[in-house]
Amino acid sequence: MLENAYVTQLFDRLAASSCDVGGQVAGYTSFMEKMVDRFYALHGTRHQVFFVGNGGSAGISMHMNTDFLKNGRLQTHSMHDPATLTCLANDYGYDEVFSRQLALAGAEGDLLVAISSSGRSENILRAARLMRELGGTVMTFTGFAPDNPLRQLGDYNFYVPSDSYGIVESIHQLVLQQAVDELMQRYTD
User: Fold this and answer.
1) Domain of 149: which CATH number?
2) Nearest CA among 102, 96, 105, 103 for reference residue 123
3) What is the pTM of this model?
4) What percent of the chain lies above the pLDDT cut of 90?
């Protein structure tokens, strides 16, 4: 069955995914706990969570922005408003659409969630570099090559060893959805 092969590949790639926090390899459960700790630490503060991605990863970013705002009770900021993107792309080029927004709205202590299947999108790399310069935290969700440049910029990294956009994006969505659900659970405990 074709659908069984896809689901099997999805589970296989999820099991083979790697995570690290601060350069230290972490198992999935440990990574999830530390990632949720980071989100939870922002609750009730003025610090923001910025979500970025292109294409399918932009869709994940916008979805997670909403879930972390509504259900995660965090101050989130989606960087995908069409008028803002087209204005900044027109004035500065597409490579600057996210970093220009961070330069205007980002601050020390903020968190950037950078989602990129390839980990090579220049606009996302610039945003990650700027967040680090601002004194914020960078959380990356990547795939394809294990040495992709975005992964090298993250404080928290989740890497899917696959070159299939569908597999990588599905796993990124799953992991982030679990994180917001775990965060919601902390508020009821």
Assistant:
1) 3.40.50.10490
2) 96
3) 0.96
4) 96
